[in-house]
Write a structure and sequence with these properties.
With 211 residues, the chain is α/β, with parallel strands linked by helices. The chain contains 8 helices and 7 strands.
Length: 211
């Protein structure tokens, strides 16, 4: 089976529709080489939001706000999101104002490792799309903040395909992230607190539900 053709077919059948203004933001971000969630990721998120109907969403990794705005357009939830890079913080704030959703978004500035311990929650949907080498460090606080039945969706866990390579086959500069992501995947798939599946969506995702 041709995996690339199959992915293209699925995308043609199952791409989540975007509003005109969100599609404009998508094109602007891509033109500036800002990483945003992929079409398949959008489709999965939309389906999960319809299924879960969350009241409070936590996003780790705002970038320019595209994924937060997509979740706002596809749910009635409010969102707490966090970002540590000043240029993207400024862009995200401008985009939230441009879309008129400031009353539904709380944007926290700083490193998620420092910010998460100060949150009280609960958050019934968590989207993790930040520094890949830090996912395991985020996890204890994320679990604390999630109620039973809460959903954790973690993006880019395949590391552009590197995750299936041996430690020594990965570029030396990427070995720490590779090691940490493998540790994260082992933790979420073997945790007594979570039921997890790994999905070949985009650059790989884990879908976890808290017991």
């Amino acid at each position: 089976m041709d995996g690339e053709r199959l992915e293209l077919f699925i995308r043609s059948m199952d791409e989540a529709p975007l509003s005109d203004r969100l599609d404009r933001l998508r094109r602007e971000a891509l033109a500036k080489e800002v990483p945003i969630i992929r079409p398949g990721t959008c489709s999965l998120i939309r389906t999960l939001l319809v299924m879960k109907k969350p009241a409070h969403i936590l996003e780790i990794g705002t970038a320019v706000g595209f994924s937060a705005l997509f979740m706002l357009e596809n749910s009635e939830a409010d969102i707490t999101t966090m970002e540590d890079w000043p240029p993207r913080i400024a862009a995200a704030r401008a985009n939230f104002a441009r879309f008129g959703v400031e009353d539904r978004v709380r944007l926290l500035e700083g490193d998620a490792v420092d910010l998460l311990p100060g949150l009280a929650g609960p958050y019934d949907f968590v989207f993790m799309d930040a520094a890949k080498g830090q996912y395991l460090r985020y996890l204890p606080d994320v679990l604390r903040l999630m109620p039973s039945g809460g959903i954790l969706l973690s993006d880019n866990v395949f590391l552009d395909g590197d995750i299936i390579e041996s430690h020594f086959a990965v570029e030396r500069r990427d070995r720490t992230i590779h090691k940490r992501m493998r540790a994260f995947l082992r933790e979420v798939t073997h945790s007594e607190d979570l039921v997890t599946t790994i999905l070949p969506v985009g650059d790989g995702m884990t879908l976890s539900v808290k017991r």
